[in-house]
Amino acid sequence: MSSSQNHITFWNGNKMPVVGLGTWQSSKEEIQKAVNAALEAGYRHIDTAYNYLNEDAIGEVLQQWIQSGKVKREELFIVTKLPMIGNRPEDVEKFLRKSLSALRLDYIDLYLIHAPIGLIGKHDQDVFPHDEQGFAMIDMHTNLVELWKSMEKQVDAGLVKSIGVSNFNEEQIKRIINNSRIKPANVQVEMHVQFQQKSLREFCQKHGLTICAYAPFASPGRNEFYSKLGLKPPVVIPDLFQHPVIVKIANKHKKSSAQILIKYLTELGVSVIPKSVSSERIRSNIQIFDFTLSPVDMAQLQELDLGEMGFTFEFSSFFKGMDKHPENPFPHRAPKN
Ligand code: NAP
pLDDT tens, 97-151? Predict the structure, then answer.
């Protein structure tokens, strides 16, 4: 697919805009300003999650836009995710309804299982439960096939249009496909120029699944996130905006590094969800449809791939002890810092 198209199409015919707004780590005030700026700039795809604890603020803005007639519900593409504390078949509908209520919607366009590992929260807001020693409260009984059957029921009930998974490995996705009545439509994973997910892209293409790239800039805001938790980032977070190859291509096209990073991913046929709370950056991050990357640009960007070594999301330092979970998706990804 070329990024002159502004949608990718799921196997079920539903269309996902290729650029969406990421909303992780945004306060209520920031996110309301950001969602307004994004809708003004033409975004129609918003990526959120129960875990981000800001769906309610987003819902207020969506409601204002829909009620005022500035946008129709069917023009929006809203993604949210089942939290890890809800990774049990009997909890899916409860958490989905909480998200629907917070977002003030009667259906979700794409509902994802946020991660394959189940956690045991003390209450429904306890999204990253830890014990006194700092170990994640993992639920050793996560059953992904049974969980998926419960996701399918939400499609049957009309509460979601499409379902998918996030942070699953290929074996886990294959297990879901082999045991599904309704195949996943989309897989959301970390993907950027240094972590191009070639194997997963081939796997998804073979099975008729689409991909959404999270952390398209390698998520530089996490330095602050880790320091607020008193932690050192487990993996060095690269400054892709200053990478000489990206700067050179950006200068040639009179575009920003961010625009090159987003454009490249869309040229690989995936959708992309850059996060920003700056109105100016939100506007510029979607201005990627008025230029083309040449075959030489594409080849130079392709060469920046570090393969499996390019990941920057390493969860076990944050979810201490999660490597003990039988569904830990990426046991080989260890801290690099
Ligand atoms: P990201 O989009 O790679 O990077 C966001 C950071 O880049 C922010 O610090 C932002 O700062 C900055 N930024 C944005 N546009 C910029 C520009 N044009 N120039 C310079 N800096 C810019 O990282 P992310 O937020 O981790 O990932 C994107 C979204 O993916 C998330 O928000 C979330 O919706 C989703 N996600 C999903 C998962 C999952 O497990 N499924 C995991 C991580 C993320 P400002 O805000 O100050 O502009």
Answer: 999 999 999 999 999 999 999 999 999 999 999 999 989 999 999 999 999 999 9
> Which protein residue has the closest C-alpha to ligand 1 atom 9?
221
Whether residue 52 lies in the annotated active site: yes
With the most atoms of ligand 1 within 8 angstroms of its CB, the residue from 194, 276, 286, 330 to mutate is: 276
Q: What is the pTM of this model?
A: 0.97
HEC string for the chain: CCCCCCEEECCCCCEEECECEECCCCCHHHHHHHHHHHHHHCCCEEECCHHHCCHHHHHHHHHHHHHCCCCCHHHCEEEEEECHHHCCHHHHHHHHHHHHHHHCCCCEEEEEECCCCEECCCCCCCCCCECCCCCECEECCCCHHHHHHHHHHHHHCCCEEEEEEECCCHHHHHHHHHCCCCCCCEEEEECECCECCHHHHHHHHHHCCEEEEECCCCCCCHHHHHHHCCCCCCCCCCCHHHCHHHHHHHHHHCCCHHHHHHHHHHHCCCEECCECCCHHHHHHHCCCCCCCCCHHHHHHHHCCCCHHHHCCCCCCCCCCCHHHCCCCCCCCCCCCC
pLDDT tens for residues 64-102?
999 999 999 999 999 999 999 999 999 999 999 999 999
